[in-house]
Design goal:
By secondary structure, the protein is of the alpha/beta class. The chain is built from twelve helices and 15 strands. Helix 2 runs antiparallel to helix 9, helix 10 packs parallel to helix 12 and helix 11 crosses helix 12.
């Protein structure tokens, strides 16, 4: 058997999209799907949003790429706008979330290095974490499915149970640089950090001279009903990674930091050929044009409450299948009861009811619609989900 032209690392399903319209995807045969996966939380404004499309088209015809050897008025403008609307003082633009994680790890280690603490290299991370697929990112998780066959991994990580503050603090020693944690876990099962946990990590960092790195690649950029999820917790990080929604479908990520945390990131310490090129910056500006309009995040929060409320009404009708609802805003997950399997149920909804969702860990399926959904889309989602639950046959052991 010969290998396929596309390296076969994805178990691709039968849906083959060729067009998108708002909250819908259209396949090769003209079939329509209600897209409550949104490219795994990427298509924040849905498909074909006119403002985003126009910005990319105009910039592509003007200037796409020049490299970072030259001044970047486009990058400076977008970075300033992000800085003006969050905790950060400085931004490094990447092409992906995994690259933002790599930058965050380097920034944290370099901070302690220039503070004459070169031994402070260890980051405490958390079970079920997903930070990306690069060697640094898979070293930051203890999941064998991502690590097996790729050793030796990057040293300098320790792992604690998510939402277990006592266990995390017990790992702190003289070599600890800080914590790397998803404010809301996505791939791991759509579990939000508790107030006590996130605030406790911040307090420990303040007391021990460590850095708090938040991974908001999935939960940031409006997904939880606020610009960034940390705003729910009354704290600020030292370093934060973002991606997914930041470009609305254009490949873009960023590592954000305070001036203090980034003090070691000087000329020659990091770089990216494509990172922050004018085309990416135009996409990033267009996203912020829409997201920073008054009422945008209020709309996300309201739609999140409506969707959660609808799910709360639906779940008791199928209590043989569904266990609980997780997440915040329009980053929701439904945990299934065995023998039901979330991955099978996602396929069932997709193939038989035209509803796109995403599987996650802990037998959860994710509901990640575009942030611009209306009540009609929620009604359609619930109708399809209800029909799917009624027609689903759980596998028998």
């Amino acid at each position: 058997m010969s290998i396929t032209p596309l390296m076969p690392v994805y178990p691709r399903c039968g849906v083959r999209p060729v067009r998108g319209e708002g909250c819908y995807l259209i396949g090769e045969r003209g079939e329509r799907y209600l897209d409550f996966a949104a490219g795994i939380a990427v298509n924040a404004l849905g498909h074909g949003h006119p403002h985003l499309t126009k910005a990319i088209q105009e910039q592509a015809a003007t200037l796409m790429h020049v490299s970072n050897l030259y001044g970047s008025p486009q990058g400076e403008s977008l970075a300033q706008r992000i800085v003006d609307n969050c905790f950060a003082d400085t931004v490094f633009f990447t092409n992906s979330g995994a690259e933002a994680i790599e930058c965050a790890i380097k920034t944290a280690r370099r901070y302690h290095y220039v503070n004459d603490n070169p031994h402070k290299t260890k980051l405490i991370t958390f079970n079920n974490a997903f930070h990306g697929r690069t060697l640094g990112a898979i070293s930051a998780t203890n999941q064998p499915k991502m690590r097996d066959g790729f050793e030796p991994l990057l040293p300098g990580f320790a792992y604690a149970p998510f939402n277990d503050l006592e266990a995390a603090l017990a790992l702190v020693d003289e070599n600890t640089a800080g914590f790397l944690v998803e404010t809301v876990q996505g791939e791991g099962g759509m579990t939000a950090g508790t107030l006590e946990f996130i605030q406790g990590l911040r307090k420990a960092c303040d007391e021990h001279g460590m850095l708090l790195i938040l991974d908001e690649i999935q939960c940031g950029y409006g997904r939880t009903g606020k610009f960034f999820a940390y705003e729910h917790y009354g704290i600020v990080p030292d370093i934060m990674t973002v991606a997914k929604g930041i470009g609305g479908g254009f490949p873009l990520g960023a590592c954000l930091a305070t001036e203090e945390a980034a003090k070691g990131m000087v000329i020659g310490t990091h770089g990216s050929t494509y990172g922050g090129n004018p085309l990416a910056m135009a996409a990033g500006q267009a996203i912020l044009d829409i997201m920073l309009e008054p009422g945008f995040f209020d709309h996300v929060a309201a739609m999140g409450e409506r969707l959660r409320g609808a799910f709360e009404q639906l779940l008791p009708n199928h209590d043989d299948l569904f266990e609980e609802i997780r997440g915040k805003g329009l980053m929701l997950g439904i945990k299934m009861k065995e023998p039901a399997v979330s991955r099978d149920f996602v396929a069932h909804l997709r193939d038989n009811h035209g509803l796109l969702t995403v599987a996650a860990g802990e037998n959860v399926f994710r509901v990640l619609p575009p942030l611009v959904i209306e009540e009609s889309h929620i009604a359609e989602c619930v109708e399809k989900l209800s029909a799917g639950a009624a027609s689903y046959k759980a596998p028998t052991s």
